[in-house]
Amino acid sequence: MNAADPGTPTISEVRAASEPFVPALCMLLADVLLHEKLKLATAESCTGGLIAAACTDLSGSSAWFERGFVSYSNHAKTEMLGVDAALIERHGAVSEEVARAMAQGALRHSHAQVALAVTGVAGPTGGSQSRPVGTVWFGWNIKGQLHSEVQHFGGDRAAVRSATVRHALQQLLHHLGQPT
Questions:
Q1: What is the tally of structural domains in the chain?
Q2: pLDDT digits (tens, 9 = 90+) for 10-56
Q3: Is residue 3 part of a domain?
Q4: Distance of CA 158 to the CA centre of its chain
Q5: How far, in Å, are 23, 41, 42, 148 from residue 141 at the CA level?
């Protein structure tokens, strides 16, 4: 446990708990996407490419992983994914509307049929009363069908990002009809 905050796991504890699970999720995702002849694109803000990295850690992932967008800044969300700047201005970068637009943009700007998007506040700075640290919006687009949700994760920056990767993959599998 973290000596500074006994309720918060250390980075190594988070990594140890998540490392065996995330590769297993990726292997299951690979099987599903290959079976369905689908390709995945990711659009990541707060995770900075960690989801794409987890997917491409698997040998042969180019058969089902099409590309990853790291759109950390608002400008990148607009330029790379086509997210309307007015939408970001109106709702904020960490919002359902932006997560959904990122997932739509990932499909529009790739050759994939499945997309997942994450946008959130990993901390320790950047939080607000309406969007505290640990707030993450998710968007999934599966052949044009959009799903979205918000989660609030605890812990430090590494814990929030790790939980975001796990949740994004678990829920993608759920939306593809797979139990996790």
A1: 1
A2: 544 444 444 568 999 999 999 999 999 999 999 999 999 999 999 99
A3: no
A4: 14
A5: 22, 10, 10, 9
Decide if 25 is inside a domain.
yes
pTM recorded for the entire structure: 0.88
- The 3-state DSSP class for residue 154 equals coil
- Cβ count within 10 A of residue 158: 18
pLDDT digits (tens, 9 = 90+) for 71-118: 999 999 999 999 999 999 999 999 999 999 999 999 999 999 999 999
> Is residue 122 included in any domain, yes or no?
yes
Q: Has residue 22 been placed in a domain?
A: yes
Q: Is residue 156 within 8 Å of residue 123, measured between CB atoms?
A: yes
- What CATH number is associated with residue 84? 3.90.950.20
Sign of the C-alpha dihedral computed for residues 91, 94, 95 and 99 taken in this order: positive
DSSP assignment string, 101-137: HHHHHHHHTSS-SEEEEEEE--SSSS--SSS-TTEEE
Count of CB atoms within 10 A of residue 159's CB? 24
Domain extent, residue 122, equals: 11-175
